[in-house]
Design brief:
about 400 residues, alpha/beta, about 45% helix
Length: about 400
């Protein structure tokens, strides 16, 4: 049987990790893997996470299953974090998932149950796992223009033109904040126009919010998701705790469904639980319990928010440092977009050949589409990267 298998495409980011590790140059810089790193190159465990785990270890009396949807307290805490009080709780179905990726997968599975012929519209570009999962599930897929490689901003006219072609009943996947891989986000005014257009087309929004707190602040980063949720009868939301809580390996995420009526919520909740049962039965609990402990304890939450703010401001400082250094070296403002982008990533908007030149000549490792992880930088590596960008002719 196994002889009939065909080789799958290699993961480009994992291949990049291996190449970086094998590179002997002391000045090499890893901007590929999408994890937060501090100034020492470490991905630390947050203070509040350590304390929450200590309390859980001391107080937990069982490792029995929670439920197919996970601990209800986790759902309540995450709904409050992402949506606040914008939607009545009885209009929201929710299930815990293995990370944000699990939430995306379960959301697509739910769409497949409810509207098997629907096409999933993805931004061009988007996170590579989005089209990969859609394709694997055998679902219809289309793209809408999003990033302008010339301006390194949103191609808003192109986006509107493409969304105007979306048929009723199709699903439009939007990034809640900190667009991955570009770092370019819609303004509030642009979002309002996108919402009006999607509504007029009769389409359904599906929001992926994986970086809340990494852009302009916890509440600010949730505002787009809240605005969309208030504007439609049905919205799917996939949220991840990997980045903002730093619990990458605990695989902690949630899928939420905003519904029109309480009866519809009950039906969506039952189907979400059914899908959890089919895919992994009960979702993992440790990370979810850590997150719940933090969000429901005022002191822990305050400490978590303070450390998250330090992380956010640190990335903004690195963005500004890089933009300033490139302005100094080029005597131009063409890289100022780096300071305007938000989140962990920015896309340089250059060619794979020049990205390879950065690697070969300067030991700068980034994904071939020129997405770079700003959190992989520090004060020492910023001038190294800036000089490499200029020397490569980007």
């Amino acid at each position: 049987m196994f002889a009939n298998l065909t080789a799958q495409p290699a993961d480009k980011i994992l291949a990049l990790v291996a190449a970086f590790r094998a590179d002997p140059r002391e000045t090499k810089v890893d901007l590929g893997v999408g994890v937060y790193k501090d100034a020492s190159g470490n991905t630390p465990v947050m203070r509040a996470v350590k304390e929450a785990e200590r309390r859980i270890h001391a107080d937990q009396t069982t490792k029995a299953y929670t439920g197919l949807a996970g601990d209800p307290a986790f759902a309540d805490a995450m709904i409050d974090l992402v949506l606040g009080d914008t939607i009545a709780r009885d209009k929201i179905a929710a299930v815990a998932t293995p990370g944000g990726t699990g939430a995306i997968r379960q959301g697509l599975e739910l769409i497949k149950l409810a509207a098997p012929d629907a096409t999933i519209w993805l931004s061009a570009p988007t996170w590579p796992n989005h089209p990969s999962i859609v394709k694997y599930l055998g679902m219809n897929m289309a793209e809408y223009r999003y990033f302008d490689s010339a301006t390194r901003g949103v191609d808003f006219d192109g986006m509107l033109a493409d969304l105007a072609r979306v048929p009723a009943g199709d699903v439009v996947l939007l990034h809640g904040c900190c667009h991955n891989p570009t770092g370019a986000n819609l303004t509030a005014a642009q979002l309002e126009k996108v919402i009006a257009l999607i509504k007029s087309q009769g389409a359904v929004p599906f929001i992926d919010i994986a970086y809340q707190g990494f852009g302009d602040g916890l509440t600010e980063d949730a505002q787009a998701t809240r605005t969309v949720a208030q504007s439609f009868d049905n919205v799917l939301i996939a949220a991840s705790c990997s980045k903002n809580f730093g619990v990458y390996r605990e695989r902690t995420g949630i899928l939420m469904g905003v519904c029109k009526t309480a009866d519809e919520t009950a039906l969506a909740q039952q189907n979400m639980a059914f899908l959890n049962r089919q895919n992994y039965s009960f979702p993992p609990d440790h990370g979810a319990r850590v997150v719940t402990t933090i969000l429901t304890d005022p002191a822990l939450r305050a400490d978590w928010e303070a450390e998250l703010e330090e992380v956010r401001r640190g990335m903004l400082d690195l963005r500004q440092m890089l933009a300033d250094e490139l302005r100094r070296l080029t005597n131009s403002d063409r890289f100022d977009f780096l300071a305007d982008h938000r989140g962990m990533f920015s896309r340089l908007g250059t060619t794979p050949d020049l990205v390879e030149k950065l690697r070969a000549d300067h030991g700068i490792y980034m994904v071939s589409d020129s997405r770079m992880n700003i959190a992989g930088l520090n004060k020492t590596s910023v001038p190294i990267l800036a000089k490499a960008i200029v020397d490569a002719g980007i």
